[in-house]
Amino acid sequence: MRYPDFINSNSSIGLPAPSFGCTTEPYYTALNHMMEVMREKGHLLYPGTNSFKDDGVGISTNPHDCGGELTAMYLDDDIDMLISCGGGELMCEVLDYIDFEAIKSAKPKWFMGYSDNTNFIFPQVTLCDTAGIYGPCASTFGMEPWHKSLHDFYSLLKGEEKTFSVYDKWEDIAFKSPEAPLETINATEDRIHVIYKDGELIKDARKSDITFQMKGRMLGGCMDCLINMIGSKYDNVKAFDEKYAADGIIWVLESCDLNVFSIRRAMWQMEHAGWFKHVNGFLIGRPANGDAIGNLDRYDAILAVASKYNVPVIMDTDIGHRSPMIPVVMGAIGNIEVNGNDMKVTYSFE
Predict the structure, then answer these.
(1) Is 92 helix (H, G, I), strand (E, B) or coil?
(2) N or C, where is the chain less crowded by C-beta within 10 Å?
(3) Close Cβ partners of 26 (under 8 Å, ≥ 6 residues apart)
C-alpha cells in the first residue's frame, strides 16, 4: 500500500470538482471561505476550472473534463494534496476519463472526499494500491467554527495524529442553509452505537460493558456508488482481497439515497460478488435514508448478510452523511477499540 506524504503549513491544496461544483448556496460561499481559512494557515490553493461549474448532469461539467481535471491535478507536482469540492450523483461516468495507470505510477498524494467521491477513492485504493481519505469535501471546511472532527481531519493530513475517537453527539437537523452558509455542525443527538457480536445484538451500547478490538485494512465508502462498480473493470476487490488476506478487511460502509430495502440488496450484491471473503468486521455509518419500511429496519438490512461472517458489526457510527465524520483512511490498517458505546481507531500506515 502506498501512502502519500503528510502535508505541512506550506503545502498546496488542489480543489478538483469530479462531482458537483460549488455554484449554489451554501456551497459557493462556504468554498470561498474555506480557501480564505486555508490561506490564513499558509496553504496555496488551486481551485480547478470546474470548481464553480454546473453545466454537467449530476456533476460539475461533462465527464471527459471532470476526469481530465482530476488526473491533471493528481499529476501536477505543484499540488501537494486534493480535496474534492463536493459530492454529487454521476461521478461513475467520470471513471472512464481518469487515467488510473498514470495515477498508479505517479507520486501518491492525499485525496479527500466522500459520498460520490467513493468513485475515485475506492479504485484508487483497490486498483492503484494508494491510500485515500474518506472525509469532508472542501466546502465543509468553510464552517465557523470548525467542529472537532475537522480539526481531527486536519491533524491527520499533517501527520500529527493517528488515533481518533467518535464524537458524543451528531447532527439531525442542520442549521447550515443558503441563508447561513457558514454554520457549524448542529450536533444535538446522542451517539448510540448498535453492536452485533458473537450472535448478540446490543441495541444501545450505552447500557453495555462490552469491550473488544478488531483490526484490518479499511475499505469501502458509500454503498450507493460501490454497487455500481461490481462486475465492472473498476472492480478489483477479489485480487485486492487476496493480496491483503493476511490483514483482513474492515468494511466501512454508509449510504445516502438507498432505503432499507436497497441497503439490504446492496449487501446481497457485495456478498455475491465475493467482496466479504476476508472480512474482519464492519463499520456502518448512520444512513441518510434509514427509516424502517414495513418489517425491515436499517439494522436487519445490514445483518441479513453481515451476521453470516461471525465478525463484529458496529452500526450507527460517525461515518458518512450524518455529521460528524470520524477520519477514515481507506487502505490503511485500522485497529478498532470498542469500550461500551465508545470507539476509537488507530491507523498503521503499512
Answers:
(1) helix
(2) C
(3) 139, 176, 177, 178, 180, 181, 182, 183
Task: Classify 71 as helix, strand or coil.
Answer: helix
Q: How far is CA 126 from CA 199, 229, 304, in A?
A: 31, 12, 26
**Pair 307, 271: CB distance under 8 Å:** no
Closest by alpha carbon to 267, among 230, 241, 319, 310?
230
Sign of the Cα pseudo-torsion (267, 271, 275, 276, in order): positive
CA angle 163, 165, 166 (to 5 degrees): 150
pTM, 2 dp? 0.96
3-class DSSP state of 111: strand
Nine-digit cell string for 285: 455509518
pLDDT digits (tens, 9 = 90+) for 86-132: 999 999 999 999 999 999 999 999 999 999 999 999 999 999 999 99
Q: How far apart are alpha carbons 147 and 321 in whole angstroms?
A: 15
Residue whose C-alpha cell is 414495513: 294
Measuring CA to CA, which residue among 314, 316, 321, 315 is closest to residue 256? 321
Quote the CA–CA distance of 141 and 71 in Å, as a whole number.
23
Q: How far from 198 is each of 97, 214, 286, CA to CA, in Å?
A: 44, 13, 22
Candidates 225, 212, 229; CA nearest to 115 is 225
Note the pLDDT tens digit of each residue in 60-69.
999 999 999 9
Contact between residue 35 and residue 46 where contact means Cβ atoms under 8 Å apart: no
Number of H helices, E strands in the chain: 9, 17
